[in-house]
Amino acid sequence: RRLSRRPPTTLLDVFQEHARRQPRRPLVLFGDEVLTYEDVERKSNQAAKVFSKQLELEPGATVAVFLPNAPAYVWTWLALAKLGCAMACLNCNARGRALQHAVAAAGAVAVLSTRGEWGQHGVGGGGGFVGEVGGLHGLT
């Protein structure tokens, strides 16, 4: 039913409704860290602002995400959804040519990563949290 609505209800819509109704309810448990809907909403809004300013992302753009399994993955996805961008999920076990092919095949305008992922997998130059596809210029 939700998909037959115009516009359809998205996962982002559902998340934001839960964040409004029960902001202090736990959403993410990662090790000893507990993040509430309110925490994730705030972090995703902050990330969306940074991505918008630093990368000048347009709705409809594809952004490759090369992050380990961690809470940042959740708010990065939500931030990109808020900006109207598609997220191409890159396997953090990919290396070398396979990783370069995945980025190219996604048609990504940018790659988001932690510093450790680029250095660990031998892709790009100086690394950084945000890297532009091509030169992979790091932004801190």
Percent of residues in beta strands: 15-25%
CATH topology annotation: Rossmann fold
Task: Let me know the average pLDDT.
Answer: 81
Major sheet summary line? 5 strands, mixed
Number of domains: 1
Q: How many H/I helical runs?
A: 5
Class based on secondary structure composition and strand pairing: alpha/beta
Q: What does this molecule look like?
A:
It comes from Crotophaga sulcirostris. Keywords: Ligase. This is Long-chain-fatty-acid--CoA ligase. The chain has 140 residues and is an alpha/beta fold. The chain has one domain (11-120): Rossmann fold (3-Layer(aba) Sandwich), CATH 3.40.50.980. The protein has helices at 11-21, 37-55, 71-82, 96-106, 115-121; strands spanning 26-30, 33-36, 62-66, 86-89, 110-113, 130-132, 138-139. The chain is globular.
Key words describing this protein structure:
two-stranded antiparallel sheet, 140 residues, five-stranded mixed sheet, Rossmann fold, 43% helix, alpha/beta
